[in-house]
Structure formats: structure tokens, C-alpha cells
Amino acid sequence: MAVPGDESRTMDEVEFDDFYTTSYARVVGQVYAMIGSRDEAEECVQEAFVRAWAHRRSLDRAGHPEAWVRTTAYRLAVSRWRRVARGRRPADRALASPTTAAAPSEAHVALVAALKQLPEAQRRALVLHHLADLPVHEVARETGVPEGTVKARLSRGRAALAALLADHQTTLPGGATSA
Amino acid sequence: MPENDLFESFTTMDQTDLHPLPASEVRRRGDRLRRRNTALAVAGGTVAAMTAIGVPVALSQDGTDARPDPGLYATDGPSTDAVAWRVDVPEDFPLTDGFPLEDPDRTQVLPEYQPQAVGPCATSPAWDVSGALESLQAVYTDPSQGGMDRVVSVYEDDTTAAAALEELRTQAESCRPQGQPRVSAEVLTSDLGEQSVVFVNGYDDTGEGFLHQAVRVGNAVLYSTSYFQGAGDPAVVETEQEREQDRSAEVVAQMCVFAADPC
Fold this sequence. Notes:
A: Arc Repressor Mutant, subunit A, 8 helices
């Protein structure tokens, strides 16, 4: 991984393997929350790590390797979502077969369903802020919009999520409780 | 920072359900991708050098050399090994996918390119098809607002298509607002296809604008323009970019027929 203050340094194999091992599941979870499909999220994150190794010099200069992978995976997912939805996706070259995850909880299913109903930009802002734990200014940097726009998206996203989850007795980000 | 764990279920997923490739395999695939990109960059440089000998130097409006940097071709490009590139547009290519369906008569498919918008500097048509082997265009005319159009251009090979796209990027990045109305070109971040250029032509006096999206896959470029209002507001521009990306997603996906390893 890039050493702070040493921007010219390139990630070596051991550092990349460590970065990959420690970040993979976390980024899959974040992209999953953004796009609503875990299989697709894992596939795109996998491809993003391949690209990360191929572009590791510029990756280090960027200084935020996990953000780079997350953004790349998200963009891959957005580019492919319609093809997936229509069942035209060609045979996957990264994974041998779809994953068979354990049955998720009812609350998790409700959350995934609610997130899917939010506008893409609000969903992404919520996930980056509340799941990836990024402060507003870093969400703004990663999404390329002003901080005020991020705050507005978070506010509107939280309100919409509260309404969508109203039947699930869920405590929402920011302390509000839906009932 | 959040005060609760609404999203906890995403962080506590059972990791045994994940199937990451071994790290060594990820690096091997990354190395292979890098070798392909490097090969493309070398080939692009060779073509650029030959072009510099045979063609007068293209100058931008401010007198600087507007030819593309061959190094810029090295995006997520395909291999330049012997590839039998497709040189025509398939009859069933879904060029109009995503166009409004309320009134089919407002959509026309044109075998000859008829520019519907101006290019980055408002001094030329939006897309120059002169270097393409074949182009096919679809135009949707909105009864009250400008509408949208798409053109897919097929080139001799991927390097030629990449050069056309980088020429467009150079024009957009070097353009300075001028004329009346003043037209400004703002290049946006984009990661579509194997290479892409997205920019907005904003008309300062009116707030009107055209979003331009050019995406290359293999030896073909899909060029889309759409009219919108509120071009001075970054949030509106971002929304319009997302809308166009969404509208054209299926067409972009089907551009895989022009890839080195076609679908």
C-alpha cells in the first residue's frame, strides 16, 4: 500500500496482496449496498482489483487505493446493470458460478429493497457516508460534486429511507427512529 | 459519522459466501491487462508518428498543436494483435434503444450523418465522421425541446477509433468560450466502454446546453448528444450525464460487437 508522504512509491506484490485481502470483503459490502446485487458487486470488485494491479502506479499516486477500487467497481456495475437486468450478461470470466449466500435477515432484505428505490446519487452518498464511514468532504471528492450537494443528498436520502423502512421499526442514520 | 448500525448487515456478511480469486491470480490478470495496454500505446505512437509526417499539423484555435497525445490511447484498450475488426454496423444494432417511444415518427434512422449539434468550440459539427468507414445515425426530435441523436462510426481498427476520440477530447479541453452566444465546453469525468469522452456545451446566455457522450469499444465509437436546460448548474449537468448514461446503457453494452473479442 502507498506509504504516506512517499507518493512515488509503487505497491509491491506483498503490499497489494495485503491490500486485496483486507479490503475485498469490505468493498464488496459497500458496492453491494450501492447496487443491490451481491453477486454483481463481487464480480465488479474482483475486476476492479485486477485493474488496480494493472494501474498500480497511478493508484498509488491517487493516495486512496480503496476509494479507487470502490469507484471503479461501482462504475463497472453501473455500466453493466441493464445488461444484467435483461439477462443478457455473457458467461462470467471471473467467477465460476453464482454465489449461494446464506438467507439474509428480513431487516436486511427490507434495507436492500429500500435502497434500490432511492435515486442512485442519494444511495451512493448514503453508502459512502454511513457504510464506508467517509466524512462529507471525502464523499464529495469521491463523487465529484460539491459538499452542499452531498449534504442535500444525505438529507433527502435519509428522509426517503425512513419512509421506506417505516414498517420495519428501524433506527436510521442520524438518530431518527421509524415506527 | 453515523451513530447507529443500520448498514451493519452489509459489513457482517458471512465471508465464507464470498469467492475472491487468489491474490496471485488477480495480479496475473492485472499483468496481462497491462501488457495489452502497453502494446496498444506503442501501436498508437507509431500511427501518430506516421500521421505527423503525412498530414499537416492540426492547430487549435489558440495556435497550439491539437493532435492527440498517443500515450492517451492507452486506456482499457484491447489487444492490437491481428484482429479481424468488424467494418459495418449490424442490421439489428439497437441504435435507438432508450429513445422515447410515445411517437415513433419522431425517430429517424439516417444512413448519412446529419449533425444535430455543434462541436466543443461551436465551429464544427459535433462529430467528424470523415475518418470512419461507415456511420449510422438515429435522431429523435422533441416537439418542444431539442431532442437527441446518436451516431455509431466504425473505423478501420481500434487505434484509428481511439485517435478520433482523443482528437475530440483535445478539442474539448482546449476550447475557449467565444462567439455569440458564448459556448463553453466542460469535460466531465467518464469511464464508459474502453475509452470515453463526455463534455457539455453550455450556452452562457440562455442556460441551454448539449451533453456530448462519446464511447469507444474496439474499432467503433458511439457518439450521443442530448439537449437540456440548466447547463450552468453542476447538479443539473451531473443529472443529465447520468440520464444519458442510463438511456444509452443498452447501446453501449451492445457495442461489444465491435470489440477485439466480440460478443
